[in-house]
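Form 12-C: Joint structure prediction
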Amino acid sequence: MNIFRLSGDMLHLISFLVLMYRMRGQRSCRGVSLKSQILFLIVFCCRYLDLFFSFVSLYNTMMKIFFISATATIVYWMLTKYRSSYDMDNDKLHGDGSFMGHLPPHGVLGYIIVPCFLLALIWNEGFEAFEILWAFSIYLEAVAILPQLFMLQKTKEGEAFTLLYIFCVGAYRGLYIINWIYRYFTEKHYWQPLVWVSGVVQTLLYADFFYYYWIALRDGAKFQLPG
Amino acid sequence: SYQNSGKDEL
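Section 2 - Result
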């Protein structure tokens, strides 16, 4: 454990709290992508299957349980008490309604879940169920924020807490990259190209957002995407 | 090993 990873994890933890605080405070989930939240829930459920068979540390175990339960709570709230404020029209992917005619989650399944799973079958750290699901979770996490970013793109502006949430998740990913560099130089045999490549892709997806978020903060102006 | 792989991260 180093300071970069710890800070990254803390930002990740805070991101859930920000989102939940915001939803409860405003009694609304407007501007939050249910698709991204469901994808994150799939990510955590697949990756943390090792809760059942391998123990790393109490810290890891508690964080894993928190990530799964917080995301499950957010999804549950969006489907129940805050359902009426869910902005479904702006949470549609380009392919929704057209993927092979009529398969249910359309865009998300066709453009995000299936490609990630196929990639996991090709590039993994071992051809067995857990390894494939683990690789799948890494690839899926890399792109899980896309529906949220598309939603922001459609509405052009976001509510302060939603923006803070995206910022926290993006910053957590950025800190993980620094953590990897640190580990590479301080640990022997630390080599994980699969995670590094996905992590860099994931962080790049936030670049645009960070740029406009920074402009808004610098100018004390409202966050507004161009176009 | 597990401790030295990406699997000891979150």
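Section 3 - Comments
Chain B touches chain A at residues 2-10 (CB under 8 Å). Residues 1 and 7 of chain B are 9 Å apart (CA to CA).
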